[in-house]
Amino acid sequence: MKTPKQKAKELIRKFALLHRGENESDWIDKDITFDYLDQECALIAVDEMQLIMDSLWKIQGTNEGQKSSYLEEVKKEIGKI
Fold first, then answer.
1. Residue 60 C-beta-side C-alpha neighbours within 13 Å
2. Which of 18, 20, 36, 58 is the most interior residue, by most CB within 10 Å?
3. Each residue's pLDDT tens digit, 3-62
């Protein structure tokens, strides 16, 4: 299993690849607009994962309000990048 920091970087990179292209050497260094969009997309993805987990917990009859501490850590790491 990846650490929260590794997962955060992986998610951000996946979104960056979508709109910047696969050749990272062509990416503009420190493009604040793209960096912001990559982070926001990654946060949305984590939020969606949490919603799915909440639904699964509800179906199983467990505490539906609980959050994955792993995903919460991923969100914190996304904010640090």
1. 11
2. 20
3. 999 999 999 988 888 777 776 666 566 565 678 888 999 999 999 998 888 888 778 777
d(CA 45, CA 38): 11
Contact (CB, 8 A) for 67 and 49: no
Structure tokens at 49: 């994962």
| Non-local CB neighbours of 70 within 8 Å, separated by 6+ positions | 4
How far apart CA 7 and CA 70 sit, in angstroms, is 10
Helix/strand/coil for 2: coil
Q: Which amino acid is at 64?
A: E
